[in-house]
Amino acid sequence: MTSQEIHKLANVDTLEEVVLYGNPIHQKIVEDGDLEWPRMIIKILPNLKKLDGISIVEWKVKISEGSMSVPCCCCVCFAWIRG
User: Fold this and answer.
1) Pairing status of strand 50-51 against strand 17-18
2) Distance between the two ends of the chain, CA-based, in angstroms?
3) Where are the domains of the chain?
4) Are 20 and 1 contacting, i.e. CB atoms less than 8 angstroms apart?
5) Which residue spans within 7-79 are E strands per DSSP?
6) Using an 8 Å Cβ cutoff, are 58 and 67 in contact?
7) What SS3 class is residue 7?
8) 3-class DSSP state for residue 72?
9) What global pTM score does this model have?
10) CA 22 to chain centre
């Protein structure tokens, strides 16, 4: 999924949850270790309640703290990905 495809999702007003795990845009966070991608997704899709299984409230806290650790919702163990 590319950022162009994410912009297309902005037309879906009822969209509340998106899982990007396993897509190139998600892999970028693992490689770069920054929080720019969730910030971008939240801005493009303001009605989201969850991103990758994590509440938008939690994402906003992580972003405001500048935390480089984000929970991995897709692992059974809820491991932390370290940036």
Assistant:
1) parallel
2) 22
3) 3-82
4) yes
5) 17-18, 50-51, 54-55, 69-71
6) no
7) helix
8) coil
9) 0.70
10) 12
**How far apart are the C-alpha atoms of 30 and 16, rounded to whole Å?**
24
Burial of 50 (0-12, 13-18, 19+ CB in 10 A): middle
Kindly compute the dihedral angle of the four CA atoms of residues 29, 31, 33, 35, in this order, to the nearest 10 degrees.
-20
From first to last of the 83 residues of the chain, give the pLDDT tens digit.
666 788 899 999 899 999 988 777 677 666 666 777 788 889 999 999 999 899 999 999 988 887 655 555 544 333 333 33
**Cβ distance 65 to 54 under 8 Å?**
no
